[in-house]
Design a protein that fits this description.
With 290 residues, the chain is α/β, with parallel strands linked by helices. It has 2 domains: 94 residues, no CATH class; 153 residues, no CATH class. 38% of the residues lie in helices and 14% in strands.
């Protein structure tokens, strides 16, 4: 899901004249970069074909139809019910402001209670209710399908992460909430990122790793059956994300450098879902060797 501000910017882009330069914010700029579109400073100019590409991308990856008129209210059903007899017309994404967790561990709350999590289920809760000081290990996963199938993760995670709390990165407001959660973690908390094995996934994990000590959870090796599922067209779209990482690869740890070269040399774009479905073992990779 995209935010209202992002939607407004995207609508301005697709409604602009062909090749008209439109100023956009960082989050929308990052989306356009993922698609390999023409970015000039903080301005973007698009062809008609590129506009259609954006519409399809947002629909497929963020569940938003930019061609559909949005609902104008953001009231929850509960608050809506104080004003109208039909609370379901609130136009509010019920879980849009919640964090979604799984894992073989416990989640503690500020009122002193706790919930034993199970990888067969997902728990949604408000960030403000969580006792974050009790979180000792956290994994951020990029895709919703991965947390739905979280029961497979203990089989492929490094030993030190097998009993971690798992949180879905989500979209729109969820991303902001996960960022805030990470900021509030204790320094002693182990943090890992597990995203798609492609240029954009690598770029996002490295960007997060620069903000706080953390590890990238990357495949130790790719079996032939997974390599057959590689999406070279996605690699081509995301290639611009890989270029600066490749140019700076010697600044990273030796193992991360090897992964960057591996993705570039083989033009890899392998989804997180394929890694999980084929139970590809993951390794802990740090940004630097220090």
């Amino acid at each position: 899901m995209i935010t209202g501000t992002q939607r407004a910017m995207l609508l301005k882009l697709i409604n602009a004249k062909e090749y008209e330069k439109i100023k956009v914010g960082k989050s929308v700029k990052d989306m356009m970069s993922d698609l390999g579109l023409n970015i000039i400073g903080n301005k973007i100019c698009l062809s008609t074909r590129e506009k259609q590409k954006i519409i399809r991308y947002i629909r497929e990856h963020h569940g938003e139809d930019l061609e559909k008129k949005p609902q104008t209210t953001d009231r929850s059903r509960l608050s809506r019910s104080t004003l109208a007899p039909n609370e379901k017309r609130g136009g509010y994404a019920v879980f849009g402001s919640m964090l979604n967790f799984s894992g073989n561990t416990c989640l503690w709350f500020k009122d002193g209670t706790s919930v034993g999590l199970n990888t067969n289920a997902i728990l949604s809760c408000d960030l403000n209710t969580i006792d974050i000081s009790k979180i000792s290990s956290l994994i951020v996963v990029e895709n919703g399908d991965t947390i739905i199938h979280a029961k497979i993760l203990p089989e492929i995670l490094p030993l030190s992460y097998k009993n971690s709390l798992i949180v879905f990165r989500g979209y729109g407001e969820n991303i902001v909430l996960v960022h805030n959660l990470v900021k509030m973690l204790s320094k002693e908390c182990t943090l890992g990122y597990f995203f798609d094995y492609d240029p954009s996934g690598l770029k996002m994990m490295i960007a997060e790793g620069k903000k706080r000590d953390s590890a990238l959870l990357l495949p130790k090796a790719l079996p032939k059956e997974v390599i057959k599922l590689n999406k070279k067209e996605t690699f081509n779209i995301q290639y611009n994300d890989l270029q600066p990482l490749y140019a700076q690869r010697q600044n990273f740890s030796q193992r991360l450098c090897e992964h960057i070269e591996n993705i570039k040399d083989n033009e890899y774009a392998i989804t997180q879902e394929n890694l999980v479905a084929h139970r590809v073992l993951l390794e802990e990779v740090f940004l630097t060797d220090n």
